[in-house]
From TrEMBL:
Family: Belongs to the GHMP kinase family. IspE subfamily.
Domain GHMP kinase N-terminal residues, every copy: 64-141
Signal peptide as annotated in the record: none
Protein name: 4-diphosphocytidyl-2-C-methyl-D-erythritol kinase
UniProt-listed Pfam families: GHMP_kinases_C, GHMP_kinases_N
Gene3D superfamilies assigned to the protein according to its UniProt record, in alphabetical order: 3.30.230.10, GHMP kinase, C-terminal domain (3.30.70.890)
Length: 283
């Protein structure tokens, strides 16, 4: 049996610089992983059979990105092998932490290993992009400045602080936010060096989705207003998760302990190498 993590990602900043003809948005974002996420276990099954244990009840197995990733790999390689997959879900869905994309990436890497397919990381990332814009960064597993729809990656090494990650009890549809006419889509495109030097005219850590998400989801606005009393808060992806960085685990835990009722969260360490890649390298 192969047991592997599917970590969360944070968008340390996110700007939208345009939109493609197919509706997808052009982004500039900084991805970093944290050492907290879902866990997936894989074992071999005969005759191409695929099954998922403990998938979220509100997602049909065939709609789950884990089964979609496995089927994509089977179709691409014509393998006759199957797998039984068990999911331990910890990341909130529709939280902006990329949980579904991370599950898909872990599935692609795990089955490539288990089925001995020999596909390269680049080939898996290309397949993964068909499942979601966030899948390639999880397949490559290094902290990255991303452009395009989030798939053009340049490795970077930002500081690796402790993060407090919090969310109100809501789920936000990524497509819903990207479809809103009011969304900011014309931010200036900057060179990576300008981002890193902090010379962005609109602020180094901005997230263009945040004003709209705050407007549509007052719970997020309220939580940002609460966290700012302790540390500068940011939002990841299209929300609903928000986060702040701390020098120590203890400092982050102390704020978590004070979180208002109805708010969930965890403390995790930022990591520039994904825990998934680390776990695979140790095998
Ligand atoms: C917002 C981010 O989380 C930032 O990391 C990602 O770009 C979202 O990535 P994701 O969840 O993997 O998104 P996908 O499953 O590919 O797309 C969901 C929906 O979001 C919109 N979408 C997504 C990514 C993107 N660059 N432009 C978009 O317009 C599209 O309407 C799409 O139908
Ligand atoms: N294994 C899975 N885990 C979570 N969501 C899944 C999974 N498979 C399919 N989905 C669907 O994908 C949607 C987005 O899930 P995900 O957890 O990736 O959201 P997110 O954290 O907002 O991601 P992002 O930051 O990429 O927007 C869910 O609302 C759910 O319907």
């Amino acid at each position: 049996m192969l047991v592997l993590p599917a970590p969360a990602k944070l968008n340390l900043f996110l700007t939208i610089t345009g939109q493609r003809a197919d509706g997808y948005h052009l982004l500039q974002t900084l991805f970093q992983f944290v050492d907290f996420g879902d866990t997936l276990s894989f074992s071999l099954a005969p005759q191409g059979q695929l099954s998922l244990i403990d998938g979220p009840a509100d997602i049909e197995p065939e709609q789950n990105l884990i089964i979609k990733a496995a089927r994509l790999l089977q179709a691409h390689t014509h393998t006759q092998q199957g797998a039984q997959i068990k999911l331990t879900k910890r990341l909130p869905m529709g939280g902006g932490l990329g949980g579904g994309s991370s599950d898909a990436a872990t599935t692609l890497l795990a089955l490539n290993h288990l089925w001995q397919l020999g596909l390269t990381r680049a080939a898996l990332a290309e397949l993964g992009l068909r499942l979601g814009a966030d899948v390639p960064v999880f397949v490559h597993g290094f902290a990255a400045f991303a452009e395009g729809v989030g798939e053009q990656l340049t490795a970077v090494a930002p500081a690796e602080p402790w993060y407090l990650i919090l969310w109100p009890d809501i789920s936000i549809s990524t497509a819903g936010i990207f479809n809103e006419p009011e969304l900011i889509r014309n931010s200036p495109k900057l060179a990576l060096a300008d981002w890193l030097s902090g010379s962005h005219p609109q602020g180094k850590w901005r997230n263009d989705c945040e004003p709209l998400v705050k407007k549509r989801h007052p719970e997020v606005a309220k939580l940002l207003g609460w966290l700012v009393e302790y540390a500068p808060p940011r939002m990841t992806g299209t929300g609903a998760c928000i986060f702040a960085s701390f020098d120590t685990q203890q400092a982050a835990e102390q704020v978590l302990a004070k979180a208002p009722s109805g708010v969930s969260g965890f403390v995790a360490k930022g990591c520039n190498q994904s825990p998934l890649i680390r776990a695979l390298a140790l095998r």
